[in-house]
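Lecture notes, continued. The same structure-token format from the folding unit now serves as the input rather than the output. Read the line below as a description of shape only.
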């Protein structure tokens, strides 16, 4: 029987971030506030340079915020040290990147298995879970292919499988369709939306793609480091 996964609530309060480049301060986020409900499929929209990737990296615990609070599933990640963050990321966050970021010398199957290597699942169990996840993303017949033997869309499917196989509370995707043609991009968005409904992780997806609005529960608009607008769909979950 499939285990029911409940996504993590994401709380962001008065979040500020400034990059320091030598003596130069680059303020990027100026006090961002929002809440994402557990299991929501949320789009993060905004012009290039508005701070979307910075925000995603803060929520994913890849960057420490200058100021403000980030809580995921009740845990305050803005207060964690590097070791705690590393552990938290592994157990709770799945990342999907625009450029896939797969290991080039590993097969699709090995790339997905790698995600599970730090967890508690033993080797045979890992293989089985990875195979099942690759089947789910439609790559049953491509498990032994290396990334350069796959199309862009297929590579992104592998990276989606890699992000979701650990059943993370939160899935963060930074322009996951940015390198794909519109048809393939649409298929990836449909896949993400389907996995959100099935697996119940909370999804936060950075995108320029207006079509994503059709499948989202919640859309957040960022402009120059501030949330300028957001709206929620009122359909039942
Ligand atoms: N590591 C960094 N060091 C300095 N400035 C950065 C760094 N990362 C991003 N920035 C700056 O922060 C701003 C927002 O960048 P980013 O979050 O990547 O925007 P978006 O993803 O919305 O295009 C940009 O002006 C960018 O130059
Ligand atoms: Mg970006």
């Amino acid at each position: 029987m499939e285990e029911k996964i409940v996504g993590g609530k994401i709380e962001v309060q008065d979040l500020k971030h400034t990059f320091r480049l030598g003596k130069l301060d680059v303020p990027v986020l100026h006090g961002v506030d929002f809440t994402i409900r557990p299991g929501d499929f949320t789009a993060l929209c905004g012009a290039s340079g508005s701070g979307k990737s910075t925000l995603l990296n803060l929520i994913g615990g890849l960057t420490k915020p200058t100021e403000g609070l980030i809580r995921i599933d009740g845990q305050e990640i803005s207060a964690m040290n590097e070791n705690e963050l590393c552990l938290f990321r592994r157990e709770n966050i799945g990342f999907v990147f625009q450029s896939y970021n797969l290991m080039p010398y590993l097969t699709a199957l090995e790339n997905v298995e790698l995600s599970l290597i730090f967890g508690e699942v033993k080797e045979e169990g890992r293989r089985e879970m990875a195979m099942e996840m690759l089947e789910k993303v439609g790559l049953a017949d491509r498990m032994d292919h290396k990334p350069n033997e796959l199309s862009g869309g297929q590579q992104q499917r592998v990276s989606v499988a890699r992000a979701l196989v650990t059943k993370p509370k939160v899935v963060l995707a930074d322009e996951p369709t940015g390198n794909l043609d519109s048809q393939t991009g649409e298929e990836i968005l449909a896949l993400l939306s389907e996995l959100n409904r099935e697996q119940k992780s909370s999804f936060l997806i950075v995108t320029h793609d207006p079509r994503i609005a059709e499948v989202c529960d919640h859309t957040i608009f960022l402009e120059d480091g501030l949330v300028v607008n957001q709206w929620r769909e009122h359909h039942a979950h």
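Point for the exam: The CA atoms of residues 61 and 86 lie 8 Å apart.
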